[in-house]
Amino acid sequence: MRRQRGLIGLMGLAALVGGLIAKPAGAKVTTEQSASILIFPKVVADGSRDTIIQITNTSNNMRHAHCFYVNGALQFPQLPPGPANQPLWTETDFDIWLTKQQPTHWVVSRGRLDNPLDESCRVSSCNPNTSGTDRADCCDAGFDPGRVPPVAPDFTGELKCIEVDASGFPVPGNALKGEATLVEPFSNDVSKYNAIGLKGFDTNNMDGVLCLGGGVTSQCPTGAEYEGCPATWLLDSPSENAHDIVVDQQDFCTAEHCSLVSTTLTVVPCTQDFESQKPKSVLLQFSITNEFEQTFSASTTITCWASLSLSDINPIFDVNAVGGEILQTKMRTTTTSGSPVRGGVVAVLEETHEMCPNPGDCSGVSTQVSRAAQNAQNSFQDFPDTDIITIPADQIQVP
Amino acid sequence: MGQVRWVGWTMAIATALVISGGRAARADVASDKPAAILIYPKVQVDSRVTESEETNDTVIRIANTNATTPIQVHCFYIDANSHCSGGSNDGAICTGDPSTCTLGGFCVPTWQEIDFHILLTANQPLQWKASEGLADADLPLPVGVCVRNPTRTCGSDADCNPFPGGTCTQSNQGTRIPPVPEDPFVGELKCIAIDDNGVPVPRNDLKGEAIQEEIELAKLGASRDDFDIASYNAIGIQATGAAPPGATNELVLGGPNPEYNGCPNYLILNHFFFDAENPVPHSDATIDTKLVLVPCSQDLQRQIPGSAVAQYLVFNEFEQRFSTSKTVRCFQNIDLCNIDTPDCSRSIFNVNVAGTLTGQTRIQGVDANTTDNLGAGLLGVAFEEYSDGTDRTAAFNLHMQGARDAADRIILP
To answer: Number of C-alpha atoms within 13 angstroms, CB side, residue A164?
Structure first.
């Protein structure tokens, strides 16, 4: 009897230990490992820039994904954002199938046809003006992943791909990786970032409610199905209108400065309801530290999708206001009266450097512009509340 | 009775595992999380204005993500230039151009490190040009000041002694970042979190980026200058918090008793095949990818560079597979199409050979059969170059997969 009591006590202890270990899933998104959800926060096809999407199946089995383009362009793109000028938040979805270890790509303004007659690049070369058409040949050679639609004109938004099984049910396969290349066709200026990945867990109950991080709730009866989205991001950037320290040292630079640097921050809330099409708003708090260890703060609210220059977020990011050339910014989400849940966001940065050989004139034709995208960093010690992606029920079926 | 006990133990363990979700912690290297070791695989400087009229430099950024505590960092520039041995140009830099070595001289890869210290205050970001470094006068906070008497400079609390209880503010005192040792320079930068005594500490507080900048001045006939930047995140190796299994100057990455997370088993590169046309409508450029690989292991004390045989598995969009291999010693900065052959038109990385625009390449470091017993892990970044007369470049971090059984080692002087 005493032994049995000991065993029961041991089991209780084990359960207690297990319970202690079973804290909610932390935010551990990855930009370097294959995952079950891929998020490309910044996708542009607005006439001046276009985007190449690359996605790869890193497993030795056939994999499938259900993808959503979310158009975050403003209703009136010429006007500043505001309550009367919200993002469109229209989504377009499609499915892709990838054979084992297969890479694929497409240009978002054109999409990709399902055309097995495309000639191999061994036979013909790629004429970029035929990408996505029935004469694409080398441009789209390879096993087509399915019919990838082109995006709407003047698209600025995100692409999200969720790994599903052959029947369309979400699964934690962790076999997808991706990259986005932003290209300015006429100058060939390019910048590239890795898709942000959320790893899936075996707790996935394969329904249309995807639970990112957090614990067991009524909506998430099995707890977290995917890694949580970070509520805190670490951003290194130059201050707005700072100067490029390499350009300014060149012989041609006879003025004090011959360059300007700015940074665009693209942020997407992780909670998305594709069924009711309700865009999510998030309040972002910024804690900014310059190289002199001086700290400032700012905040802004974004809805659905936002791509903002740092100076649009707050003038404190300007070099003259912040008093330093290089900044470390901790961006975190916070709860509001209308949104008591502290959700997560994903973010990507893009720096723009302007070289102005005519001293003091950065608007002339001689000005050269180059951009570089960067994946932002996040912390291991970050435990936001659950984010939920809701997929319409009729989309979870045989594609 | 023995059976009952066995069942009880099994149930107890199973219960704990079920409740805990049975998810084992994974040890991963990551460039998107702060870490205790930062690796910038490619730092390039060339301020000579040569026939190509190109000049390039690298801006290094590093930040302490800890909001309260300063951090000491020990950094190493690893010079991977090749130099002429013998001949009339003995000692001249011949990286990428063996014809520099004349009259019987040979172009020999060399490997040399220089190291320096940085002190970052709480939350402080810092940047410098690799060509110039950061001298005392350029430091943002060269000295601290006494809190109770801001007119008095100090290096430590003891310097504020006339003011009882006075403390000294955090500063960069002791920091001196030298320029890279040669111009032109190509190589790696590695930074390790240390304590005040120079002993590596498991503080995952460092993050960094590198921005490679290239300026092409207007050539004869060209109407405009050209300017290009490409940035990547420094690769972070997180400390596990475990005590060092051996000497304090021997950092053990992965393996059975890891001090730091292990290097990945595979690096995965998504790329355009060599000479692929940019598929974006109205563009007119061909794409070439340069791959930069550095070994995880290095003996900085005995100046023994890490080495590994990189095995490449290449898949095109038809699911067709190719493979090749090449030894990486110290540092490799190579066009994809030169990995398997000097003739790019015959390379498995050529678009006309591969048959599709894009591919996936899986890279695994295997032991180069050396006697140094350092380990064969690899890390890297890629640079994608779009050329239409001028070059535009995008840099990006490689994906990683799996953990290696064997440990990698970094041995510090």
So the answer is: 26
The token pair at A121 is 């690049």
List CB contacts (< 8 A) between B354 and chain A: 121
Question: B273 CB near a chain A CB, below 8 Å?
Answer: yes
Last residue of a domain, one of B220, B237, B254: B237
How close A148 comes to chain B (CA, Å)? 15
B209 touches chain A (CB under 8 A): yes
CB contact under 8 Å between A141 and B398, yes or no, is: no
Report the domain count for chain B.
3
pTM of the model: 0.91
What 8-state DSSP symbol labels residue B407? P
| A32, A103, A143: residue with CB nearest B397 | A32
Statement to judge: residues B121 and B207 lie in one domain: yes
**Do B221 and B311 fall into the same domain?**
no
Question: Does residue B51 belong to the interface with chain A, where contact is any CB pair within 8 Å?
Answer: no
B319/A102 CB distance under 8 A: yes
Nearest-angstrom CA–CA distance, A81 and A66: 30
For A160-177, write each residue's pLDDT tens digit: 999 999 989 999 999 999
Q: Please name the residues in contact with B163: beta carbons below 8 A apart, sequence gap of 6 or more.
A: B146, B148, B149, B152
Q: What digits encode the pLDDT tens for the residues B27-85? A: 466 778 899 999 999 999 998 766 566 789 999 999 999 999 999 999 999 999 999 99
ipTM: 0.90
From chain B, the residues in CB contact with A32 under 8 A are: 30-32, 397-400
- Cα gap A6→A3, rounded to integer Å: 5
Q: Which domain holds residue B155?
A: 140-170
- How is residue B345 annotated by DSSP? G
Q: Clarify whether residues B306 and B412 are in a common domain.
A: yes
